[in-house]
Design brief:
By secondary structure, this protein is an alpha+beta fold. It folds into two domains: about 10-160, Creatine Amidinohydrolase, Chain A, domain 1; about 165-390, Creatinase/methionine aminopeptidase superfamily (Creatine Amidinohydrolase). Helices cover about 35% and strands about 20% of the residues. The chain has helices at about 10-30, 40-45, 75-85, 105-115, 135-140, 155-160, 165-185, 195-205, 270-290, 300-310; strands at about 35, 60, 70-75, 90-95, 125, 145-150, 220-225, 245-255, 255-265, 320-325, 330, 350, 355-360, 360-365, 365-370, 375-380, 385-390. The chain has a six-stranded mixed β-sheet with strand order 4-3-2-1-5-6, sandwiched between helices. Strands 11-10-12-15-16 form a five-stranded antiparallel β-sheet. Strands 7-8-9-17 form a four-stranded mixed β-sheet. Helix 7 (about 165-185) packs antiparallel against helix 8 (about 195-205) and helix 9 (about 270-290) runs antiparallel to helix 10.
Length: about 400
């Protein structure tokens, strides 16, 4: 029996809007065809969200066709049928014999397809930042008359401004993140294993909230005393103890869109040092919220925070955040000094104010926000405090 399509994350018209923006960029670069290999950009353009980027795959966008073509390992084509808005003839699966082969692979099928649609002597865009160098060389060797144009992060920059539908999905993801933080506050206690806290957090991220389930679990980072000076660390085999500080970073996910949050916990009263740092960071966060608006720059946002905490005697060396969307981070702008990217309505950011001061001392606080026509909409809502637990 043929596979019938499941419900897509967004209506077909939303994907066609995205494709229109990409095709406009292609026309500006005099490019007929674009081969998209970044997995997040594949999701953005088609809805495909299976975890299969460990083998060759990609989306071919032609300015002459309304729908793109997705090329995958054959066993992954049913996922594309279920998840994407594409017609069945726009989903191509290559045989298993090409997986793990030293002679040919899935990119050879892509090259054959590009030849079939008349691209042998056309301009072809490649995402060279996500395409293996050896595979890029294969494309250039087998298509010697084509002109190749580097489209690295071009689609990602288009993604940085969300549609209203995307912002609402991120809002749903942010609500799941809030629920997970509150669940952590409920279960963390002296004697509990870090792993058991993670199990409860992960359960909330999967179950979701407000009738909206989580559709993926990503980036649960947890560290407790004496490891709070670590920025990207997973849970350990340790237990929580009286006096432990715990830093947690996590994200809720809806249809691959993320809402991220970071909060700090203390079993018992926080130390004076931790409380002073929290007060400085919370004040700095408020300074940021007063700066975010269309026309401000990423640098403006970061410097509002830096100036604020420096008045309190603290310093943050790392950036203050980044755009967030599909699969967490969008590798484009940064909330840091000198980044002159101008904020526009419906940009979404993770305002990441984690501050790792010494090898054994750090603190985390963050929010996910969207830029509105008049300012800012903070999408995460968990209390902005040190969670004092007993």
């Amino acid at each position: 029996m043929p596979i019938s399509k499941g419900p897509q994350a967004f209506p077909r018209a939303e994907y066609l809007r995205r494709l229109a923006a990409v095709k406009q960029e292609m026309e500006q670069r005099d490019t007929d065809t674009l081969f998209v290999t970044d997995s997040s950009n594949m999701t953005y353009l088609t809805g495909y969200a299976a975890i299969s980027a460990y083998v060759p795959q990609g989306v071919v966008v032609s300015i002459y066709d309304e729908e793109p073509t997705i090329i995958l390992r054959r066993m992954d084509t049913p996922a594309a049928i279920y998840q994407t808005f594409l017609e069945r003839d726009k989903i191509i699966g290559y045989p298993e014999a090409l997986v793990g082969s030293s002679d040919k692979d899935g990119y050879d099928v892509v090259i054959d397809f590009l030849n079939e649609i008349g691209c042998a002597s056309r301009a072809i865009g490649l995402e060279l930042n996500s395409l293996p160098a050896q595979s890029a060389e294969k494309l250039k060797t087998r298509l010697p008359n084509a002109k190749f144009v580097d489209f690295s992060r071009a689609v990602t920059w288009i993604r940085i401004v969300k549609s209203d539908l995307e912002v609402e999905v991120i809002r749903e993801a942010a609500a799941i993140a809030d629920a997970a933080i509150l669940r952590a506050a409920e279960v963390i206690r002296p004697g509990l294993r870090e792993a058991d806290a993670i199990a409860e957090i992960a359960g909330t991220l999967a179950r979701g909230v407000n009738g909206k389930i989580g559709t993926r679990i990503v980036n649960i980072n947890l560290c407790s005393s004496p490891r709070t000076g670590t920025s990207h660390i997973l849970w350990s085999e340790d237990i929580f103890r009286e006096g432990s500080q715990i830093n947690i970073e996590l994200g809720g996910v809806r249809h691959t869109y993320c809402g991220a949050i970071m909060r700090t916990f203390s079993i018992g009263a926080p130390s004076d040092r931790l409380r002073r740092l929290h007060d400085a960071e919370a004040e700095g966060l408020e300074a940021v919220l007063n700066v975010v608006r269309p026309g401000a720059t990423c640098s403006d946002v970061a410097n509002a925070f830096y100036r604020s905490i420096e008045k309190r005697g603290f310093k943050k060396e790392s950036r203050c955040g980044y755009p967030i969307g599909i699969n967490w981070m969008e590798h484009t702008a940064s909330l840091k000094n000198g980044d002159m990217t101008v904020l526009k309505p419906n940009m979404t950011f993770h305002l990441m104010l984690g501050n790792w001061i010494e090898e054994d001392f750090g603190y985390v606080l963050s929010e996910t926000f969207s830029v509105t026509e008049t300012g800012i909409d903070v999408l995460t809502r968990a209390p902005r405090k040190i969670f004092e637990l007993s």
